[in-house]
Design goal:
The chain contains 11 helices and 43 strands. It is globular.
């Protein structure tokens, strides 16, 4: 048993070995923090996802057998044993309750001892029949409803941890802990696990609609700025353009053909070595002139920068001496092996410690010195999970703590470093494209793409729930490598069909970016286009020296593919005002442009079960083609809206229909009173 008291606008409960604080945190939301002992640590502070918010004191009631704390739509009940139940304030309906895993040790919150001053923490909640759970960032398991899944809470290439869940029961919960762990969404209970933490910290809100939950969550964690308009257009990228001359040749060809081009990407290897954060002058003799010419053409340049540092970098000695590089638990300064220019091939690399404020400031200064003078203001933050080999976060020690405790925070703070550096330099809207993010990263002008996915129909299908889940978790700027990153063979008819259908899908994604490692022919293997070098850990990687993947421009895949893609490029250009209107909604309300059906139609039970179609903004419903040889598919159109075929303008009613899908025209439907339908004509 314990004692409850009102304190500083919240409710505090203490027992012989635990302290719990529940306090209002944003509209209709409560924050719960707990720890062993009698002191509540706040290990994240301004580094965390939750913003400091002004909230009125909650209504606290103390009784002989517990206490309650209410704040707007949500109320928490605390019993004498310290267990919590969350209820709707208006009707008392249970939203979520802590659950005792076993009668021998009836604790919903469990603290497992570790020898390093941290705890292994588990929080267990009741499971409910019929509950559906959404969010958790970007996973590649191909499911939108996460109920029944066990999801690792760890950043990996293609798998991005943003630990926010939206429930069909009317609540949203943020697990505000960057530790490596997992969440088990079973039929017999929900359990959140942190492998190393100083305390428990989660945030919960309630609302009448899923959109209301997302709005409250993004108000508490921050909303994305308004997307720069060029980022809403077509992006051309390749692994990789090797020189200034090559980039300009590609841009001029797009203009000669009269094709829209809004962003061009300069990938890895443009630098002297990793950690110099500047152009190689041999291949890039005048980047400023390049940027100015491209800008006059209406094309934005974005440059890839990595958080890894080669030992021969001009900055390595300084960073090492000042403690700005992460180290392994064994004192080894090399958490990873990757490719670089010098020496050519795979080399041991050190890692910028993004959890160190001084290291972040140093990175910002290097980017301002190496790129801003040339007019480069946008950055592609690749491999920022970070990519360590082997992927064992416990091997790495950071300024903020051991890897098991803070690993998931790394991409968040890396994005913050670049955002703050650019803002300090006067850049109005900094923009980064990131391979990984965390809760709240959207406020730093950070976009997410789905990483190094395969070129396959299965991967294409998985991008729909991946993008929707990222949006529900607060990340509105999202896209995938059109055609997938690896495995695409330029002259393979099967890949060409996949690429065409992927383009059709990507037109209606927040970001529209062509990228990938392309093989030139079906008979060519990777060994034919790059030199493979075996690093010490036995993994495969390649040298950047003189390397470029196969051609990846829209004219690189034959006439049939080209004639298919060109109208889609122009369609996206005509859609841009609509895209920007949805980006304004994301900025002002936190609602993502790419939405599951239930976000707009929560009263329609079927809308909660559809996982292979989505809404693009409020007015367009998109049903991609997800298999070879298909020329039609079943589409569900929610009731209550008069839908029309976007391509023909013909009314189609609602419910389940069979929709034609000829090449170049995946099923797209528009609210018949929406002006956006005009751009399809």
């Amino acid at each position: 048993m314990g004692n409850a008291r009102a304190e500083a606008g919240g409710l505090v409960w203490t027992s012989a070995d635990e302290i719990v604080r529940i306090e209002p945190w944003g509209s209709d939301a409560l924050r719960v923090r707990a720890a062993r002992g009698d002191v509540l640590p706040d290990p994240l502070g301004e580094d965390g996802a939750l913003l400091e918010v002004d909230a009125p004191a909650a209504d606290v009631t103390l009784g002989p057998h517990g206490a309650t704390i209410g704040h707007g739509a949500i109320t928490a009940q605390l019993d004498a044993g310290g267990r919590l139940r969350f209820l709707r304030s208006d009707d008392g309906r249970e939203l979520l309750a802590e659950h005792d895993p076993h009668f021998v040790d009836p604790r919903a919150r469990h603290y497992g001892h570790r020898p390093d001053g941290y705890w292994r923490i588990e929080a267990t909640f009741t499971a409910y029949d019929g509950e559906r759970l959404y969010g958790l960032g970007q996973q590649q398991h191909g499911r939108l409803d996460q109920k029944g899944c066990v999801v690792d809470l760890v950043q990996r290439n293609t798998q991005v941890t943003v630990p926010f869940l939206l429930s069909s029961r009317g609540y949203g919960l943020l697990w505000h802990c960057p530790a490596v762990g997992r969440v088990e969404l079973g039929a017999n209970g929900t359990r959140w696990v942190a492998e190393a933490a100083t305390g428990l910290d989660y945030w919960i809100t309630a609302a009448d609609t899923p959109a209301g939950i997302v709005e409250r969550y993004t108000a508490a964690s921050g909303r994305a700025p308004l997307l720069p308009e060029r980022a809403a257009g077509f992006w051309q990228s390749n692994l990789r353009y090797r020189s200034q001359a090559e980039v300009m040749s590609v841009a001029h060809e797009y203009r000669a053909r009269g094709l829209p081009l809004d962003v061009i990407v300069i990938d890895a290897g443009h630098w002297t070595v990793m950690g110099d954060w500047r152009f190689d002058p041999q291949q890039w003799p005048d980047p400023g002139a390049m940027v100015r010419e491209l800008d006059a053409m209406g094309v934005q340049v974005i440059v890839s920068v990595w958080p890894t540092v080669n030992g021969v970098s001009e900055n390595a000695e300084t960073m090492r001496a000042r403690g700005w590089l992460a180290r392994t638990t064994y004192g080894d300064p090399h958490p990873t092996w990757l490719f670089d220019n010098r020496p050519p091939g795979v080399v041991p690399l050190e890692l910028l410690d993004a959890t160190n404020p001084e290291a972040r400031a140093f990175l910002g200064a290097r980017l301002r010195a190496g790129y801003l003078p040339h007019g480069i203001e946008w950055f592609w933050l690749d491999a920022d999970e970070p990519e360590i080999k082997p992927l064992e976060p416990g091997r790495v020690e950071y300024h903020a703590g051991p890897g098991e405790a803070v690993h998931n925070l790394y991409p968040h703070l890396h994005a913050r470093a670049v955002y703050e550096a650019m803002r300090e330099a006067g850049v109005e809207t900094p923009f980064t494209l990131n391979r990984s993010l965390w809760a709240g990263s959207q406020r730093y002008g950070a976009a997410l793409w789905s990483g190094d996915i395969h070129s396959s129909w299965q991967a294409l299908a998985a991008q729909i729930p991946a993008g929707l889940s990222a949006g529900l978790a607060g990340i509105p700027w999202w896209g995938s490598d059109i055609g997938g990153f690896k495995g695409g063979v330029a002259d393979d008819p099967g890949f060409r069909e996949l690429l065409m259908r992927w383009f059709e899908f990507a037109v209606f994604c927040p970001l529209f970016r062509l990228h990938g490692l392309r093989q030139g022919s079906a008979t060519a293997g990777l060994e034919d286009i790059t030199e493979l070098v075996a690093p010490a850990d036995g993994s495969e990687a390649f040298s950047l020296a003189g390397f470029s993947g196969g051609a990846n421009e829209v004219w690189s895949f034959g006439d049939e593919v080209y004639e298919h893609i060109v109208p889609l490029l122009h369609l996206r250009r005509r859609l841009r005002p609509y895209v920007m209107s949805q980006m304004r909604t994301a900025h002002e309300r936190g609602l993502p442009p790419m939405r599951p059906l239930f976000l707009e139609f929560p009263a329609d039970p079927r809308a909660w079960t559809v996982e292979d179609e989505f809404l693009f903004g409020s007015d367009l419903l998109v049903a991609p083609i997800l298999g070879p040889g298909l020329t039609e598919r079943e589409v569900y159109l929610p009731a209550g809206v008069a839908w029309a075929d976007a391509w023909t303008g013909e009314p189609v009613g609602s419910g389940s229909i069979m929709a034609p899908a000829p090449p170049g025209r995946i099923p797209v439907f528009v609210r018949d009173d929406s002006k956006v339908g005009r751009v399809f004509g």
